[in-house]
Amino acid sequence: MFYGWRLSIIIQGVAGIVSAIVIWFSLKDGETSKRVPRDSIVKALRQKGFWVLALAQFIRLGSYYTFIAWLPLMLKEEYGLDILLVGAAMSLFNIADILSNPAGGVLNDSMGEKTVLMASFIMLAVNVYAFTVLPSGVPILLTVFLLCWLINFVRSPSFTIIPRLFGSETTGSLSGIHNTFASLGALAFPLMLGVMRDATNSYNVGWLALSTLMIVDTTLTAIIKVPKS
Questions:
Q1: Where residue 55 falls among pLDDT bands split at 50, 70, 90?
Q2: Rounded distance, CA 114 to CA 224, Å?
Q3: Structural domains in the chain plus CATH codes
Q4: Cα-atom radius of gyration of the chain, to the nearest Å?
Q5: Closest CA to 153 of 195, 107, 187
Q6: Cα separation of 45 and 90, whole Å?
Q7: Residue 33: what pLDDT?
Q8: Picking from 6-20, 26-40, 157-171, which range would have the lowest pLDDT averaged per residue?
Q9: How far apart (Å, rounded) are the C-alpha atoms in residues 118 and 222?
């Protein structure tokens, strides 16, 4: 074909343009103030809850990219899975991603953000630790599925809790700052696991460190006081 590999990029570009046009004509912004009150942002930055949630975002996206970067190699090296099973495991990982995002939002509305965050992170800590003790086979495939399920389960409460704690007028600014912490985690965590693997010739120390961080953040989240709706 004349376009070769460029065809896929052209299709994506056309889809993006069409989507932008549809969004432009079908969505309208709500009423917004001309500028975000600086005092509100500074007040939020002075609260412990802001930094606890920043740490949660750091761990959430950092863990997600660590799993994407290292799971295929680890499943092959440590558990001896062949290429087909590694691909199946990563497919389970992505299926969980699709299902857990809306499920987390629904449970968030009924149980509250703090409960979902704490429960998800403590279960995720146990799940990550499982990599150091579980045998190969079905148990490890289920662990991979649960990893992505739990890490995406906290996406909704991680952001919807912001206006409840700090007010709706600064939601965009504070979400942006928290996303910056998430991106820093995505940079640091995969690198951290690689360094630990090379230093110890094992993934276990990295998994234990990640599991410990999740327990620490769960403990810190417990001190956040969320106003009742």
A1: very high
A2: 8
A3: 49-221 (1.20.1250.20)
A4: 20
A5: 107
A6: 38
A7: 54
A8: 26-40
A9: 7
Task: Answer yes or no: are the C-beta atoms of 172 and 186 closer than 8 Å.
Answer: no
pTM listed for this prediction:
0.80
Token readout for 93 is: 């990982």
Scanning the structure block, which residue is given the tokens 């070769």? 4
Determine contact, residues 65/119, Cβ cutoff 8 Å.
no
Residues near 37 by beta carbon (within 8 Å), at least 6 away in sequence:
169, 170
Give the integer Cα–Cα distance in Å for 18 and 182.
Answer: 30
Question: Taking Cα atoms as reference points, which of 158, 135, 140 lies closest to residue 59?
Answer: 158
* Cα–Cα dist 178/226, whole Å: 18
Q: How many CA atoms lie within 13 A of 136 on its CB side?
A: 11
How confident is residue 112, by pLDDT bands cut at 50, 70 and 90?
confident
For 117, the token pair is 């965050």
Phi and psi (nearest 5°) for 228?
Answer: -75, 140
